[in-house]
Every structure is written in C-alpha cells, then in structure tokens.
Amino acid sequence: MIAVDPSSPYTGGAVLGDRIRMASNVGDMDVFFRSMSARGTLGGLSTATADAVKALDAFGKDRIIVETVGAGQNEVDIVRTADTVVVLVQPGSGDDVQMLKAGILEIGDLFVVNKADMEGASRTVADLEEMLHMERDPTAKLNTGSFEKPDHPDQEEIDANGSAPTEDDDEHWEPMVLETVAKSGEGVEELIETLDEHSAWMDETGRREAKAKQRYAAEIRQLLRADAADLIDDELDRCGGVEAMAERVLDRETDPYTVADEVLGPIEDCVRQQRE
C-alpha cells in the first residue's frame, strides 16, 4: 500500500496520517505500508511513486494499491501508474460529483460510493450513473442549439444499456458504480470481485501490455525533461544566473525570448554536433 499525502506549500512537509488510520494492519507481515509526501508535485502522486510501485512489484507483492492525494482536475497521474483506477466518492458530495465532470470521470474504471449507509448515498450513486450514461450515450450530448447535428447512431442502434454499439463489446470496459460500507465490510466482496474482473479483462484484451508501453513512454519523456532541465540550470548559472538575466530584461537591455535563445544556443549546438 502506497499512500500519497499532500504537502505544505510553505514547508514542504506532510502529516502522513494514512498510516495511523491503517493501524489495524500493524504486525501483519503480509501487508507493507508506505506513506510519502507529494512534495508539491501536481498530478496527485509523488515523483517517487512510480519507482516505488516498480520496486514493490519486483519484491513479488500480489497487489499494489496506490492512494492519491485527492480527486482534483489535474490529479490524474494515477492513470499512467495503475492498471485499474478506482474513484472513491462519499455521499452528499454534490460539489465533488460536479467536479468529476471536469476531469476525473474520464479516468475511472470503477466508481465506489463509500459510507453507503449514510443519508444521500442513493442520490450520489444516481448522479454518478447519470454522468456515466451521458459519457456512453452520444445522443445525451447533442447540442440542440446548433444548426448541424453531429453524426450519431440512430435510436434503434442504441443497445439496452443505453450505449452505442461498438465493433467489439469485449474490447470496451463499462465503468460501474458500487456501494460500500468500510466499517461493516458491506459491498467490499463485490468490489474485490469487480477489480478481479477488470484485471482479467485487461489481460484478455491486451490492454495491460498496451498501458505498460504507454507508461514507459511517459516515464522516458519525464526523465528526459528532468535531465534537460538540469542542463538548462547549469547553463543559466554559467551565464550569470536567472536573476541577472531578469535584471537585464527589467532594464530593457533584452527580452525573455532573446535570453532563452542565448541559454539554449550552446545546448542546441552540442546536440547538432552529436547528430553529425
């Protein structure tokens, strides 16, 4: 279990309180729990989360669960790290459900309404199911105010589930909404079964391998950007530092675009020489 906690924008520290809430697993040698701070990283994960997942996988862990810092519009890095993404929602979170429309709705493989014994749980489930239906049903998104209607399947072609037919239904996973009560364990068994079903679907359709390839490609890009940023920082220091350059811009001696060209010029020359 890897739990990522938000960090203070001022001190960079984090409470790491998840391990306290998971005190029931203390002494269980089959469970490894690791908390880490996001350290100001956007995307909902720490920069070390992906490496921690790979390390635990190498250790032979059967299941690796990653908890993100939250469900914001930009906190979607988990989709590039995990094979299955579960979005956890609590009853009465009307604003949170509205927020799901902005970004999180598209990445969830499964939506779980926890504390389903509380008032408002049924409404939250209904709201989620309605939004998922709108994602599946092209006719639900028609802009009736436009002069031209976009192409969409005829009503007769919409299947019983309210979604348009695809070339191969087995190739498409339909996100679903489940209800759980963590304290009593109600619904947890169904949740585990659904997670196993999604895992099997990933293997049968080849999605797991395809997702792993995308994950490695994203990691390569991230590492290249980080190394390139270090090279640029070194070149900035050689040129007198960014503060000195900002002072020149402030004095109208130059402009930011020219400064950027001056810093990147030697690096670009080295790259060209290597290519030749």
TrEMBL record:
- UniProt GO MF annotations: GTP binding; GTPase activity; kinase activity
Q: Which Gene3D superfamilies match?
A: P-loop containing nucleotide triphosphate hydrolases
> By its UniProt entry, which SUPFAM superfamilies does this protein fall under?
P-loop containing nucleoside triphosphate hydrolases
Q: Does the keyword Kinase apply?
A: yes
Q: What keyword terms does UniProt attach to this protein?
A: Chaperone, GTP-binding, Hydrolase, Kinase, Nucleotide-binding, Transferase
Question: Per the record, which residues fall in region Disordered?
Answer: 136-170
Tell me yes or no: is Metal-binding among this UniProt entry's keywords. Answer: no
Similarity field: Belongs to the SIMIBI class G3E GTPase family. ArgK/MeaB subfamily.
| This protein's name | Membrane ATPase/protein kinase
